[in-house]
Design brief:
The complex is a heterodimer of chains A (117) and B (116).
Chain A: E1 5-7, E2 10-13, E3 19-24, E4 31-38, E5 42-50, E6 53-57, E7 64-68, E8 74-78, E9 87-94, E10 107-108, E11 112-116
Parallel strand pairs in A: 2-11
Antiparallel strand pairs in A: 1-3, 3-8, 4-5, 4-9, 5-6, 7-8, 9-10, 9-11
Chain B: E1 3-5, E2 10-14, E3 19-21, E4 24-26, E5 32-38, E6 44-50, E7 56-58, E8 64-68, E9 73-78, E10 87-96, E11 102-106, E12 110-115
Parallel strand pairs in B: 2-12
Antiparallel strand pairs in B: 1-4, 3-9, 5-6, 5-10, 7-8, 8-9, 10-11, 10-12
Classes of the chains: A mainly beta (117), B mainly beta (116).
């Protein structure tokens, strides 16, 4: 158990719908990362937040958005869903302090499996 | 832009065989290097990491990796694999982006299948 929790574990929805995935980082971790893992694309970094602010962006579609709240939990919103959005979505956290300070490894949550039908 | 290449997408070995998985990155500045493992049906877990110092780092479960700066490589090795090492292995690199924040880049992963 990494200490990172994600809900829900599984989500089945229809094309065109909107879903929200939730992530609670390890206690004390300020950075949250979102990843998408699919069979054809592999592990893709989507976005990173640090203490409520967006810090890095990867291959995140415009239909997707995320935010990190004052209590440090994060939500990934996926809208206008397409069949190709079916994937495992991982959240990871780390104590990284942003601009300065040491670098830490990431701790991954169990993932949310999204199936779009 | 930084990138990470894992040239072996799928490796099949017999138990007790030696393992070496390649990882090359492209970034000219200071980097931190990681290997993560994802066992079937599970989330990614850290195997080992390199920040500075001895370029040969040892991780959990008998894995080690060597950082060769001149070759921009961080290859993962294990002298004798076990069936339980069947998993997907990801190399990752962090470096500071233009805003000064650490940006992480993962390789595409290598699926290792160990045959008993």
């Amino acid at each position: 158990d990494s200490g990172v929790t994600q809900t829900p574990k599984h989500l089945i929805t229809a094309t065109g719908q909107r879903v929200t995935l939730r992530c609670s980082p390890r206690s004390g971790d300020l950075s949250v990362y979102w990843y998408q893992q699919s069979l054809d694309q592999g592990l893709q970094f989507l976005i990173q937040y640090y203490n409520g602010e967006e810090r890095a962006k990867g291959n995140i579609l415009e239909r997707f958005s995320a935010q990190q709240f004052p209590d440090l939990h994060s939500e990934l919103n996926l809208s206008s869903l397409e069949l190709g959005d079916s994937a495992l979505y991982f959240c990871a956290s780390s104590p990284n302090y942003g601009l300065a300070g040491p670098v830490y490894e990431q701790y991954f949550g169990p993932g949310t499996r999204l199936t779009v039908t | 832009a930084q990138s990470v290449s894992q040239h072996n997408h799928h490796v099949i070995l017999s138990e007790a065989a030696s393992l070496e998985l390649g990882c090359n990155y492209s970034y000219g500045g200071t980097v931190n290097l990681f290997w993560y493992v994802q066992y079937p049906g599970q989330h990614l877990q850290l195997l080992l990491k390199y920040f500075s110092g001895d370029p040969l780092v040892k991780g959990i479960k008998g894995f080690e990796a060597e950082f060769i700066k001149s070759k921009f490589s961080f290859n993962l090795r294990k002298p004798s694999v076990q069936w339980s090492d069947t998993a997907e292995y990801f190399c990752a690199v962090t470096a500071r982006n233009s805003g000064g924040y650490q940006k992480v880049t993962f390789g595409t992963g290598t699926k290792l299948q160990v045959i008993p």
